[in-house]
Design brief:
307 residues, UDP-galactose 4-epimerase, domain 1, Rossmann fold, 2 domains, globular, alpha/beta, three-stranded mixed sheet, 10 helices, seven-stranded parallel sheet, binds nicotinamide-adenine-dinucleotide
Amino acid sequence: MRVLVTGGAGFIGSHIVDALVAAGHDVAIVDNLWEHGGGKTENLNPKARFYQLDIRDAALADVFASFKPDVVSHHAAQPSVAFSTKDPSYDADVNVKGTINVLRCGAAAGTRKVIYASSSATYGTPERVPIDEDHPQRPESPYGITKMVGEHYLQYYASAGGPAFTALRYGNVYGPRQDPSGEAGVIAIFTNRILAAEPIRIDWDGEQQKDYVYVGDVARANLLALDGADGAVLNIGDGVGTSVNELHRQIATVVGRDVKVEHAPKRPGDVRLCVFAIGRAKAALGWEPQVPLDEGLVRTIDSFRIV
Ligand SMILES: NC(=O)c1ccc[n+]([C@@H]2O[C@H](COP(=O)([O-])OP(=O)(O)OC[C@H]3O[C@@H](n4cnc5c(N)ncnc54)[C@H](O)[C@@H]3O)[C@@H](O)[C@H]2O)c1
């Protein structure tokens, strides 16, 4: 299959590219290596074609016309809640207009399907846990709003004769290659700082719980969605809530050292509790997480030690 991965130089996208190449697919990447994102040239798989291009650029149509993707795995985005609260207009430009451009180009080039990276941030503060896919979406950050709007455009284009879709709502994804220099990705940030014997910052009281899912499991969900679960919206998480304080404890234990903790107030847009119900992804794709948090943390910490 010919698969175009937008954001394929980034953290999650590059793992998807590697899994697609390993499975024998013909893969191309569109990524503009945005200066505030996690995209890096060293993440690029040499067996994939690379187009350094902004997804908002009119020239995206030429990439679609020449590569003719059967499926697009759409991961290019402004991916940070914190950045979105500082510049909501930029966030909307990339996450909404960029997504529309991907869908328009896919419709024009006869792309069969778009797999979309959505987010737990679209739910906002849950009224019940675990959160299933029918839970109301009341996003509390500009990022959560734009990711939710992207889902609506998928449905619009599919109903208007464009590509079919699967929207994957990820929990907090972690693993090797996650950028530790940004404001998102608490596991990468804590790992990097504890390995360097530098203090960590814990916002709020650290008891906020999120659903952490290993990046290899996310890549596998994308491969399964290549030809399954058309029209479905699926939670992709591990179904377990873990607090920031618990992450700190576990990472310090694996690294074998603790560091000073600085405390800071709640960040705008952060939510208290997010734990996913993941039964629908199992029913639709046969997908279940295979890497539990303790094992995923060891793999992540080992990869950060090598770098
Ligand atoms: N990391 C998570 O926990 C998480 C959770 C839910 C959803 N997501 C979504 O998954 C996707 C990948 O996130 P990530 O954590 O790997 O982030 P990342 O920053 O590592 O990857 C995003 C990639 O998109 C590229 N990009 C950004 N703007 C672009 C543009 N205008 N044109 C072309 N390329 C552009 C960046 O250069 C980067 O390589 C995003 O859509 C994000 O919203 C991530």
